[in-house]
């Protein structure tokens, strides 16, 4: 069994017990424990079930590489699936349950899959479930979906109670990893005065050296670590953060850091996670190395663990993962575990080492001296057990697995060698090189990620760079730190140098293991990929490492192959008869370990998930029951229903009140872009289809803008403010887009024209006073002459209204007498209130976007986005009058001369009236005879806008119809959504209301 | 080709799965083929397959710079739908969708086509009108879609939030026979079937030049030597302009990175695909349990298969707004692919200025769903010189101004 040792544990505080629950049983641990160490201390070795076969799974690692120990963490709104127990710091009241089993961890129906394993090899689902066809969707797939997945989803109806934030940092050197390499590199870089940020994913500094010991500068490694951290903390140009992981590296020195602020203290105030968005000149990845498992039969049983993890649990947490631990290692480092276990008073029945040494290297000698039996040239034929390992069978490594003897044990510590953590190096294009001596990939210094200047911006330090011994690690880190700030190399602090015998790569144990053993030797524990699966993939021609990955799912689990990829790759290259470097690796992608979606989204959620843009009158709308309609990031009132009124009733009332009296519209969201300069007229002549340079000062002109491809993209009224200054109104949705469009042309094509643009949309409140009584209302406000003579239609004037400075435009989007009044934004609400007050006895009625739409449709005015959809040119809409014939060019002109654009076959704007007065369905198509070559019904037109007109008391519509304007009076047939029900409509003039335009020009 | 079936798997299980043959033969290039297809992605392989199946043309090589299915076929979000607006688009995407229905049986390879439905949320009045138009258009195009109410939305996707504070759900465009398939399996299934017809799939073979005589294509130069052919099909999304340049013509295409990401796997919570175009994000849940997420394309041109962070941020933000439970899930992996963008965001399936040379490109952000239809039509175009499915997708439409613009129906990537 696994237990807490009576003494030891450098990270735990035995004076501070912590209570927690696992699968609804109360257990206890100590402050400083991880959930994994606390579970082991309570003899909870088996903590989950695998993905495919639902095999028992135990804790295998002690850090971010853990593939097995994933739990549902927390309750209710704080529930979170797939939390790694090895990186979850224990806190009082922690609640965890194991995953992927039913009904319970111990008795899981899904484990039947394991019995059927021989029928479920890699990729079995591609070969099965083909017949009968409907069974895939209705029978097979639902079953597979139900048995796959891991953790339980959070409840959809609760809301995440935690908050998240983004934090921006700009530094000279970012060091990722707070082991001795990271500390030394940070110190070396910081000495130059450079701004240095050092981040460490765990809660502790020092990495492996703090566990494995050694001497640095004449002092124990732990003391050196503490002293170095203190030095760095005292430097003003250095920032240190623990619990902060380097998640991803991007072009131009952009790095994501993921800081887990409150995961270990969920009741604390403040954000739970903080996403660091770091821009750095240089990056040093001092990310260490990860130990590899060894592929032998039964290596997935609970109790079979990484040797380094076993050591970590003993040294860091005072936990014995087992009472009797067999160590299996193909390198000297594994012996450290045997020695540490022995020192803690635990039994180590044997170290099994496939190598044969002529002279024992120091660690081997030390183990032997401690009385540990070392079996050289030996291997594990298989591990035995069910929910926990109970023993191993020893065999000759060079053989096929014939049993030499059995050793009872409850823990197996395995070390297949180390793999540098090269993820961050690789994210942005850094390449790797195969180091055959050490049997690992390490960064290729000749192929580093490069910045805009072509120079490398990522450096590696320490064991991440393939240096496994303290002295080399420190020297490499010193070099990296100095190089990152442009200094020459310098000697590093001295440390004890070691001698070790070379690793003997063991990709399959024993070397000639037969099929039976290979089918039980796991590579990917979580996804249940075995040696035999990779070999099957190779046999079937999935020779690319990417094919093998995708066919077998090797490395696709939540650990992304941190333990399995290199071993799998080696098996694949062996099966293909190719060298490992020829086969290559799969792509390393961010994030290094999974990061919360909440952290990615940051503060922007709910109301503020996008910026809310508010007009100066917004609060009034809100107070007066506006039904909101989102328009871009604005909210506009759709209508203002009175008590007991439906939306439709409200819209009708608003239209009638405006047509018969006076209405008030908040039009502040309309884009207002000032274009100024001696070339402003010339510029607008290019931008609009109209001739704008001839517009007299004081006048307004309706203008159209097209894309380069000729399609109508925006419209609005342009007013000439003075000789050099124009004010361009755009649609609400178009303001930012059109401003960017103007700037793009100015900056890339016409950079020598004397023109400036400024988007003043939010500087003004713009309020439309609309209706036959509009003038009466403005006259009551007083301050300027708004008579027909002083301010005729399509002109503007500056002045004051009710003592508020105002620019008044005589323009109309409704067909009524209409003034659009622009006042400084800060006085917008005042002006609005004043109008309501003064107009009360005139029946003044605020109206929303829907009434606006109805009135413009009654008047036959087009709406960008309704009559246009990116395929419509102004000529289709009867807007030829707005296209200057005098200009040599404008944006879109050449495009509009192409054959399809000038064809007589185009669909053109008309009005439509149903024969029975009903409202045509929105978006309906008019059918023509027959079908096209693809069997689709032929069409001859479509509805673009359709409304019930309160003014005319019938349905009215606008539409595009094939050669429409030439077919006035003709009846065409539209089909409803079902594609069958007919609606007949007559083609009519699109101007339904006041076709002579008398009302707006009074 | 040994047929796949549950029986075959059971039989092989008894002999340790030693009897499986290669899914596709390892091939070295011959000196000459009737047809050479450049690019062994989904579209290239499907083209070869239908050349053989429909027109009996089997002396075909499919040559591939990297590993088959390794471009956008193997890095998309696997969505299949045909609820397009314009007739030519609806025709080719619906042809593809209908071929997907029986593709597993046709190829004897389970591509896991799973028509669990595609839902496109309407979150503004404008979007409602746009989707109503699509429903009307689809009815005439033979594409089965309908507009559903918020209550129906919630019933189909219980994890959705209807009444978000910014963009409440007003309804949705629903295609119940849309869904997803296993992307790799589509490539592998076609490759296996092509190989079985005697075609050569030649991987790790890069085209370095296009040979021509008197305005007619005669073959390609490759890193594995010269290969002669009567007809050449270029199907190399992400590098279309590069290969077209070798053939001596230019394309109206820009390349940008499109990104996708997956969460850690969780137990099933969502059956269908949901697209939220107003907020720019879409999501489905894979059979493995991962939430598969995509969003917009980067706005700068790029050939590296990685993208910028800000798009991912925007996408995740949008989806948390739509599915608040996502906040406590974790992002597992995020990747990018390079997509061809044309001026109207619709593909090019076309003859080219070089006689005998055809090009299939420009699928932008949505090519996976089209693979069978694209192969079906492009094979017909290559074999017969014309196809009703590809007629409108000629590269000369840009010169004529005859765009097939889907901007209304496809506001975001997919």
Automatic annotation (TrEMBL), chain A:
Keyword terms: Oxidoreductase
SoxA A3 domain mapped to chain residues: 520-602
Entry's Gene Ontology molecular function annotations: sarcosine oxidase activity
Any one of the GO BP annotations: tetrahydrofolate metabolic process
Domain Aminomethyltransferase C-terminal: 908-994
FAD/NAD(P)-binding domain sequence ranges: 172-425
Cited InterPro entries: 2Fe-2S-bd_N, FAD/NAD-bd_sf, FAD/NAD-binding_dom, GcvT/YgfZ/DmdA, GcvT/YgfZ_C, GcvT_C, GCVT_N, Sarcosine_oxidase_asu
Family label: Belongs to the GcvT family.
PANTHER family registered for this protein in UniProt: AMINOMETHYLTRANSFERASE (PTHR43757), AMINOMETHYLTRANSFERASE, MITOCHONDRIAL (PTHR43757:SF2)
Stated name of the protein: Sarcosine oxidase subunit alpha family protein
Organism whose genome encodes this protein: Thetidibacter halocola
UniProtKB/TrEMBL annotation, chain B:
Catalytic reaction equation(s): sarcosine + O2 + H2O = formaldehyde + glycine + H2O2; sarcosine + (6S)-5,6,7,8-tetrahydrofolate + O2 = (6R)-5,10-methylene-5,6,7,8-tetrahydrofolate + glycine + H2O2
GO cellular component term of the entry, any: cytoplasm
Xref: Pfam families: DAO
GO molecular function: nucleotide binding; sarcosine oxidase activity
GO biological process, one term: tetrahydrofolate metabolic process
Segments forming domain Rhodanese: 35-79
Oxidoreductase keyword on record: yes
Subcellular location per the Swiss-Prot or TrEMBL entry: Cytoplasm
InterPro entries named in the record: FAD-dep_OxRdtase, FAD/NAD-bd_sf, Rhodanese-like_dom, SoxB
Chief subcellular location: cytoplasm
Keyword entries, A-Z: Cytoplasm, FAD, Flavoprotein, FMN, Nucleotide-binding, Oxidoreductase
Family: Belongs to the SoxB family.
Protein name: Sarcosine oxidase subunit beta
Native organism: Thetidibacter halocola
């Amino acid at each position: 069994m696994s237990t807490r040792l009576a003494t030891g544990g450098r990270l735990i505080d035995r004076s501070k017990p912590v209570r927690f629950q696992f699968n609804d049983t109360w257990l206890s641990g100590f402050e400083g424990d991880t959930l994994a160490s606390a579970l082991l201390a309570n003899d909870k070795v088996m903590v989950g079930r695998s993905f495919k076969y639902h095999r028992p799974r135990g804790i295998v690692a002690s850090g971010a590489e853990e593939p097995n120990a994933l739990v549902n963490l927390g309750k209710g709104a704080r529930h979170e699936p797939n939390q790694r127990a090895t990186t979850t710091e224990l806190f009082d009241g922690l609640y965890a349950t194991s995953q992927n089993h039913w009904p319970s961890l111990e008795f899981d129906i899904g484990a039947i899959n394991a019995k059927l394993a021989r029928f479920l090899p890699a990729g079995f689902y591609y070969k099965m479930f083909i017949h009968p066809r409907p069974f895939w969707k209705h029978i097979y797939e639902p079953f597979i979906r139900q048995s796959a997945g891991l953790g339980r989803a959070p409840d959809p109806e609760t809301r995440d109670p935690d908050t998240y934030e983004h934090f921006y940092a700009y530094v000279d050197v970012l060091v990722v990893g707070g082991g001795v390499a990271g500390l030394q590199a940070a110190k070396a870089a910081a000495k130059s005065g450079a701004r240095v940020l050092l981040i460490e994913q765990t809660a502790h500094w020092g990495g492996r050296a703090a566990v494995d010991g050694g001497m640095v500068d004449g002092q124990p490694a732990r003391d050196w670590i503490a002293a170095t951290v203190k030095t760095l903390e005292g430097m003003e140009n250095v920032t240190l953060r623990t619990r902060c992981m380097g998640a991803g590296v991007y072009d131009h020195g952009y790095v994501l850091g993921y800081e887990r602020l409150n995961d270990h203290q969920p009741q604390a105030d403040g954000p739970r996670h903080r996403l660091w968005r770091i821009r750095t000149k240089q990056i040093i990845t001092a990310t260490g190395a990860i130990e590899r498992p060894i592929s032998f039969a039964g290596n997935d049983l609970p109790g079979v663990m990484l040797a380094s993890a076993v050591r970590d649990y003993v040294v860091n947490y005072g936990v014995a993962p087992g009472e009797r631990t067999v160590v299996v290692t193909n390198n000297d480092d594994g012996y450290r575990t045997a020695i540490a276990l022995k020192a803690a008073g635990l039994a180590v029945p044997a170290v099994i080492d496939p190598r044969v040494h002529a002279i024992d290297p120091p660690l081997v000698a030390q183990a032997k001296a401690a009385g540990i039996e070392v079996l050289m040239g030996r291997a594990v034929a298989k591990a035995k057990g069910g929910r926990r390992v109970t023993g191993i069978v020893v065999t000759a490594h060079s053989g096929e697995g014939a049993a030499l003897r059995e050793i009872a044990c409850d823990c197996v510590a395995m070390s297949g060698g180390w793999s540098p953590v090269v993820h961050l190096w690789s994210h942005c294009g850094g390449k790797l090189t195969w180091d055959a001596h050490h049997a690992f990939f390490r960064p290729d210094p000749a192929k580093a990620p490069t910045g805009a200047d072509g120079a490398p911006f990522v450096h590696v330090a320490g064991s991440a760079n393939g240096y496994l011994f303290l002295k080399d690690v420190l020297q490499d880190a010193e070099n990296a730190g100095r190089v990152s700030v442009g200094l020459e190399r310098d000697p590093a602090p001295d440390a004890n140098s070691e001698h070790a015998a070379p690793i003997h790569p063991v990709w399959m144990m024993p070397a000639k293991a037969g099929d039976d053993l290979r089918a039980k030797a796991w590579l990917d524990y979580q996804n249940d990929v075995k040696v035999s699966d990779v070999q099957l993939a190779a046999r079937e021609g999935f020779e690319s490492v990417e094919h093998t990955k995708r066919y077998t799912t090797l490395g696709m689990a939540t650990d992304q192959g941190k333990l399995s990829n290199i071993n799998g790759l080696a098996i694949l290259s062996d099966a293909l008869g190719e060298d490992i470097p020829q086969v290559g690796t799969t792509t390393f992608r961010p994030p290094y370990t999974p990061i919360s979606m909440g952290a990615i989204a940051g503060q922007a959620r709910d109301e503020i998930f996008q910026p809310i843009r508010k007009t100066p009158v917004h609060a009034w709308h809100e107070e007066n029951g506006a039904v909101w309609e989102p328009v871009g990031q604005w909210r506009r009132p759709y209508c203002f229903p009175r008590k007991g009124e439906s939306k439709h009733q409200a819209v009708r009332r608003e239209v009638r009140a405006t047509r018969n009296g006076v209405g008030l519209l908040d039009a502040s969201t309309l884009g207002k872009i000032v274009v100024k300069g001696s070339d402003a007229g010339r510029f607008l002549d290019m931008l609009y289809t109209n001739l704008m340079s001839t517009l007299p000062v004081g006048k307004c002109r309706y203008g159209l803008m097209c894309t380069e491809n000729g399609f109508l993209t925006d419209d609005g009224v342009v007013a000439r403010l003075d000789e050099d200054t124009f004010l361009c109104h755009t649609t609400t949705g178009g303001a930012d887009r059109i401003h960017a469009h103007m700037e793009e042309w100015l900056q890339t094509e016409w950079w020598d024209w004397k023109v400036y643009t400024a988007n003043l949309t939010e500087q003004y409140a713009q309020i439309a006073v609309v209706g036959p009584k509009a003038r009466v209302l403005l006259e009551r406000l007083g301050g300027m002459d708004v008579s027909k003579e002083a301010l005729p239609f399509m002109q503007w004037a500056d002045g004051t209204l009710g003592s508020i400075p105002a620019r008044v435009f005589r323009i109309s989007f409704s067909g009524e007498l209409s003034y659009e009044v622009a006042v400084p934004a800060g006085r917008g609400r005042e002006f609005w209130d004043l109008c309501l007050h003064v107009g009360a006895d005139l029946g003044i009625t605020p109206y929303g976007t829907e009434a606006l739409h109805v009135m413009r449709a009654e008047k036959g005015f087009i709406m960008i986005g309704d009559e246009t959809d990116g395929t419509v040119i102004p000529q289709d809409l009867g807007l030829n009058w707005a296209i200057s014939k005098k200009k040599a060019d404008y944006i879109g002109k050449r495009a509009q001369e192409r054959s399809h654009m000038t064809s007589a076959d185009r669909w053109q704007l008309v009005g439509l009236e149903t024969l029975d007065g009903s409202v045509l369905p929105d978006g309906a198509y008019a059918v023509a005879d027959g079908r096209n070559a693809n069997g689709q019904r032929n069409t001859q037109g479509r509805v673009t806008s359709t409304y019930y007109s309160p003014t005319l008391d019938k349905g009215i519509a606008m539409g595009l119809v094939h050669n429409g304007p030439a077919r006035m009076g003709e009846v065409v047939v539209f089909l409803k959504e079902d594609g069958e029900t007919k609606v007949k409509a007559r083609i009519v003039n699109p101007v339904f209301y006041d076709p002579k335009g008398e009302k707006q020009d009074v | 080709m040994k047929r796949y079936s549950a029986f075959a798997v059971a039989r092989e299980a008894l002999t340790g799965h030693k009897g499986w043959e290669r899914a596709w033969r390892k091939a070295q290039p011959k000196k000459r083929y009737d047809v050479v297809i450049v690019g062994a992605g989904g579209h290239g392989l499907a083209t070869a397959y239908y050349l053989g199946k429909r027109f009996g043309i089997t002396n075909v090589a499919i040559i591939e710079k990297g590993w088959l299915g390794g471009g956008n076929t193997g890095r998309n979000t696997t969505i299949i739908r045909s609820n397009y607006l314009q007739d030519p688009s609806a025709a080719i995407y619906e042809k593809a969708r209908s071929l997907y229905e029986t593709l597993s049986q046709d190829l004897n390879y389970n591509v896991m086509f799973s028509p669990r439905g595609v839902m496109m949320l309407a979150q503004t009045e404008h979007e409602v009108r746009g989707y109503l138009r699509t429903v009307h258009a689809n009815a005439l195009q033979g594409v089965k879609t309908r507009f559903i109410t918020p209550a129906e939305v919630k019933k189909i996707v219980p994890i959705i939030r209807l009444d978000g504070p910014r963009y409440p759900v007003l309804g949705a465009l629903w295609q119940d026979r849309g869904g997803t398939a296993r992307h790799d399996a589509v490539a592998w299934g076609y490759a296996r079937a092509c190989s079985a017809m005697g075609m050569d799939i030649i991987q790790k073979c890069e085209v370095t030049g296009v040979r021509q005589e008197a305005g007619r294509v005669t073959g390609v130069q490759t890193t594995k030597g010269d290969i002669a052919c009567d007809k050449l099909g270029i199907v190399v999304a992400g590098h279309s302009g590069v290969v077209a340049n070798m053939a001596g013509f230019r394309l109206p295409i820009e390349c940008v990175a499109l990104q996708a990401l997956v969460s850690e796997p969780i137990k099933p919570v969502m059956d269908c695909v949901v697209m939220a175009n107003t907020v720019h994000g879409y999501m489905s849940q894979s059979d493995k349990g991962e939430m598969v997420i995509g969003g917009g394309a980067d706005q700068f041109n790029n050939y590296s298969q990685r993208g910028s962070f800000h798009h991912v941020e925007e996408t995740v933000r949008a989806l948390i707004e739509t599915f608040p439970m996502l906040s406590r899930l974790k992002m597992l992996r995020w990747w990018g692919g390079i997509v061809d963008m044309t001026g109207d965001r619709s593909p090019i399936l076309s003859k080219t200025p070089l006689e005998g040379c055809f090009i299939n490109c420009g699928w932008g952000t949505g090519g996976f769903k089209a693979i069978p239809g694209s192969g079906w039509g492009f094979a017909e175009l290559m074999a017969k010189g014309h196809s009703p499915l590809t007629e409108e997708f000629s590269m000369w439409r840009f010169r004529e101004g005859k765009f097939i613009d889907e901007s209304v129906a496809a506001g975001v990537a997919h």
